[in-house]
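User: Can you predict the 3D structure for this chain?
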Amino acid sequence: MCAEKCAAQFNISREQQDHYTTETYRRAQHAVDNNFFQEIVPVSVKQRQRGGGDDTLTTITKDEEPHSLNLHKLATLKPAFDRNNGTVTAANASSLNDGASAMVIMTQDQANDMGITPLAKILGFADAETAPLDFTIAPSLAVPIALDNAGVTAQDVDYHEINEAFSVVALANMQLLGLDHSNVNVFGGAVALGHPIGMSGARIIGTLYSVLKHRDATVGCASICNGGGGASAIVIERLS
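Assistant: Here is the predicted structure, written as structure tokens:
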């Protein structure tokens, strides 16, 4: 119901959310098909055979969710929370997915000692909070603090990643932060890629770096809300 409150508060319609959903899936499909997600590593999974046969090994190399959208059913889905007047559906919310992510963070001195070339530098980060019912817009509170801590302005940021817990989350925060969708979640977001709880924060930072590298850009900001009313944001600078 928090997402429905957000949609009503910012006058974001079902049609707008479904349009955003279609676009985030399109972007994710394009990114997957063109191997833009260089941070993804293959995972081998054992598949049990019916009837007691030997297990087989299947190697997963690409995310499965981006190509699962049925456009013909998108507009016909019933609302997930408010059955009568709701705008949030299973399709325009993030999907339930398995996932894992890992990142290595160290000082420049440590990297030099180990002969490692850093991919990016953390310029600043921040947390912010609001009422739990309004957790959907908490990123808009964390981002300005992170930018200030990083010593950069909003105009210095080339690209944003805003975790799509729901399509309305991205739409509302873009509205509040004055962001153009062309610079936000350009490889698609959690609605199309999935939102494995506990790894999405690292995932959007990795994707942000990939976007910066692919677009030959320098500064990016990633932000994510949590169900308790808080949000975190981080500003990075691409180094290589």
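Strands lie at 43-47, 56-60, 120-129, 159-162, 219-225, 230-238. DSSP finds eight helices and six strands in the chain.
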